[in-house]
Amino acid sequence: SLRIIGISGELCSLSVQPAWRVAKLRCLVAQTFGFPAAELALLDDSKTELKDHSAVGERRQLTAVRLSPSAAEQKAMEDREFMGGLVLQRARKLASQEGRKIESST
Q1: Which of 8, 22, 26, 79 is most exposed, with minimal Cβ within 10 Å?
Q2: Could you give the C-alpha distances from 86 to 72, 91, 95, in angstroms and in order?
């Protein structure tokens, strides 16, 4: 069981699987409280925001923080820019590797 706490204490307790991604948990918690998942951040014990691609793992407690719509929009834009940068970096690396393969086969 995973406890979700907020400023006022425990908000809910959910049965989760360790392999679940944080994105799935975030959607479930937001749905439970009736607001968009984009407006929910989940923090671990060190108050670090968990990334959507991370596994829930063996955590037993997370802190839920509701973001304003404008803060959620800003966060989504920053996440898209970050992911775009990662994709571009990966594409460049693959292109570089392909270039070396072509050179060595000629």
Answers
A1: 8
A2: 21, 9, 14
Angle at 58 between CA 53 and CA 60, to 5 degrees: 105
List strands edge to edge, sheet with 9-14. Answer: 9-14, 2-6, 61-66, 40-43
What the block records as the tokens of 5 is 């706490």
Query: Distance between the two ends of the chain, CA-based, in angstroms?
Result: 59
Q: Which residues pair with residue 66 across a beta bridge?
A: 40
- How far apart, in whole angstroms, are the C-alpha atoms of residue 18 and residue 37? 20
The pLDDT averaged over each successive group of 10 residues in the chain (106 residues) is 92 94 94 92 93 92 92 82 80 80 60
Model pTM score? 0.72
Let me know: does 19 contact 53? Beta carbons within 8 Å: no
- The encoded tokens of residue 37 equal 């998942």
In the three-class reduction of DSSP (H, G, I as helix; E, B as strand; rest coil), residue 72 is classed as: helix
Beta bridge partners of 61: 3
